[in-house]
Amino acid sequence: MGLRRALFQVHLWTALIIGAYIVVISISGSIAVFRREASIWFIPRTVASTEGERLTGEALDAAVRRVYVDYEVVGIAEPQGRRGGLDPALRPVAVALVRDGVRTGRVFDPYAAQDLGDNYPPVVRWMEWTVRLHDDLLMSTMGRRINGVGGALVLLLVITGAVIWWQGKARWWRGAIVSRSSRRPIMWQLHSALAFWSFALLFMWAITALYFAFPTPVEELIDYFDPNPEDFERPGEAFLVDVIGLHFGRFGGLEVRITWAILGLAPAALFITGFIVWWRRVVRPRLTPDPAQ
Fold first, then answer.
1. What is the spatial distance between Cα 177 and Cα 190, in angstroms, rounded to a whole number?
2. For the segment 151-163, what is each residue's pLDDT rounded down to a tens digit?
3. CA-CA distance, 234 to 219, in Å (whole number)?
4. Rg from Cα positions in the chain
5. 76 pairs with which residues across the strands?
6. Helix, strand, or coil here: 75?
7. Helix (H, G, I), strand (E, B), or coil: what is residue 95?
8. Torsion of CA 49, 44, 97, 52, to 10 degrees
9. 3-state class (DSSP) for residue 182
10. What is the value of pTM for the model shown?
C-alpha cells in the first residue's frame, strides 16, 4: 500500500504538471488526422469540365495574364503525370502570382480559362499550423524533443496509472465499467474506465512520440540486426512503418480518421476527469470553511 500511495502521488503530480500539454497535444492530434482530407476538400483538384481545348504553352500564358491582370505572373505549372490517381488532363494548373511584394498561389482551369480558387486556403493553412503544433509545438527540432520528454512523462502516467487501476483478479472488471451501484463517484469510474479502454493506444502514442523525438537508438538497433546493410530490406522496419501509420491513423478511409479523432481525445478526457476527481476530493474540502470552527 505504501508503494501504491507513492505511485499515486507520482501519477497525480505528473498529470497536474503536464495537464495543459496533454490537452493541447490531444486536441491538436485529433484535428491533425484530417490533414489529407483538408487538402482534398478545400483545394480544387479537378476542372469542372474537359470539353473544348485545353490551353497550353503561350495560349495558356496569355489566358492567365488576362485573368490575373492586377498581378505579376511569376510561374505557371502544368500538371505532370498522374497524381492521386487523377489523369493530368483532369487536373488544373497552378499559378504563382505577386502583387505589392506579396506572393500568392491560385488554381486555374485551362479549359474554361478561369480562376478556381486559392491553392493554399485559410483552412488548409490553419490545418498545417495545427499539425506543426502537434508535431513540434511550433518550435522545430527543440519542440520535437520537448514532445519526446512529454511522451516519456505520458508513458510514466500510463504505467503508474495501470498499477493504481489494478484491483485484483476478482474485481479488476469493476475498473472497466461505469456503474450506478458502485460506491465510487461517477467521475472516478469514468476516469478509470477511460484509462482501461484506451491503455493500448496511450501506450503506443507515448512510445511513438519518443521515437519521433529520438529516432537514432531505434535506427541503430535496426541496423545492428540487419544482416545485409547493402540491400533495401531492414528487419523490423515494416513493423515500425505500420506503428507510425497507427499513430496518425494513416490507414483505411474517412471512417478510420473519424474514429481516430474521437479516440485521440481520450488523453484530454482523462486529464479533465482526473482533475475533477482531484479537485472534489482534495482541493474543494480545503477551500470550504469548517462549520465547527
1. 8
2. 999 999 999 999 9
3. 10
4. 26
5. 95
6. strand
7. strand
8. -10
9. coil
10. 0.89
Q: Which amino acid is at 156?
A: L
Q: 29: exposed, middle or buried (C-beta count within 10 Å: 0-12, 13-18, 19+)?
A: buried
* 78-136 tens-digit pLDDT: 998 887 778 899 999 999 999 999 999 999 999 999 999 999 999 999 999 999 999 99
Task: Give the cell for residue 275.
Answer: 482533475
Q: What is the chain written as a DSSP string?
A: -HHHHHHHHHHHHHHHHHHHHHHHHHHHHHHHTTHHHHHHHHS--S-S---SPPP-HHHHHHHHHHHTTTSEEEEEE---S-BTTB-GGGS-EEEEEEETTEEEEEEEETTTTEEEEESS-HHHHHHHHHHHHHHHTTSHHHHHHHHHHHHHHHHHHHHHHHHHH---TTTGGGGGS--TTSSS-HHHHHHHHHHHHTHHHHHHHHHHHHHHH--HHHHHHHHHT-S-TTSS--TTHHHHHHHHHHHHT-SS-HHHHHHHHHHTTHHHHHHHHHHHHHIIIIIHHHHS--TT-
Query: Of how many residues is the chain composed?
Result: 293
Contact 194, 186 (CB under 8 A): no
CA distance 5 to 185: 19
Q: Order the strands of the 72-77 sheet from edge to edge.
A: 72-77, 93-99, 102-109, 114-118
Q: Is the Cβ–Cβ distance between 210 and 218 less than 8 Å?
A: no
The answer to whether 60 and 78 have CB atoms below 8 angstroms apart is yes
Rounded to whole angstroms, the Cα distance separating 93 from 100 reads: 23
